[in-house]
Amino acid sequence: MKKALFTILLSVSVISFSKAQTSVNTNQSLDKRDNWTQKDLIEPAALAAIIANPKAKQPLIYNIGVVENIKGAKNFGAASEKENLERLRKTLSGIPKTSFLVVYCGCCPFSRCPNIRPAIGMLKTMGFTNGKLLNIPTNLKQNWIDKGYPLAGK
Q1: What is the pLDDT along the chain (154 residues), one digit of tens a residue?
Q2: What 8-state DSSP symbol labels residue 59?
Q3: Quick one: how far is CA 76 from the chain centroid?
Q4: Tell me, what's the pLDDT at 76?
């Protein structure tokens, strides 16, 4: 009986620990440089569905990288370049802080991207409450284009 109880408790502990590890990996960034949380992300499928629905409130979409434009996106160029980040700041200064907006890069994996951290940091510093980062952790091709999501001009 004791051995059976021990086995059950051990199994529950292992399952709980593995679920806790999974939630850390999927709900929190592992890179200490990241200045966003899971709630700051919008999934590609969710954004694609919004873009495809003409009745949905459309977000302002800003391409802050050097990749193709998603349908409806305005391209600012690499946010790692001071002049591009300043142009984005000037544009954002003219819109309400509650605006639904999405920024994305997609040039490379999040861990190496030089553009998303400056842009997200600026959104937060400026006080935007509904600014989102498109969750394309690998690159735009794999996480958007290969899934057939809409691009500008197509």
Answers
A1: 544 444 444 343 333 333 332 222 333 445 677 888 999 999 999 999 999 999 999 999 999 999 999 999 999 999 999 999 999 999 999 999 999 999 999 999 998 999 999 999 999 999 999 999 999 999 999 999 999 999 998 7
A2: P
A3: 17
A4: 97
| 94 falls within a domain | yes
Residues 32, 115: Cα–Cα separation, whole Å:
16
In three-state secondary structure terms, 18 is helix
The structure tokens listed for 11 are: 């199994």
CA distances from 51 to 45, 56, 79, 85, 152 (A): 10, 8, 23, 25, 11
User: 133 is in which domain, residue-wise?
Assistant: 38-147
Determine the Cα–Cα distance for residues 83 and 86; give it in Å rounded to an integer. 5
How far is it, in rounded angstroms, from Cα 139 to Cα 134? 11
Q: Give the residue among 36, 34, 28, 40 at the shortest CA–CA distance from 130.
A: 40
Residue 18 belongs to some domain of the structure: no
> Are 47 and 150 in contact, with CB atoms under 8 Å apart?
no
Domain count, the chain: 1
What per-residue confidence (pLDDT) applies to 105?
Answer: 96
Count other C-beta atoms under 10 Å from residue 99's C-beta: 13
| CB-based contact 105:79 (threshold 8 Å) | yes
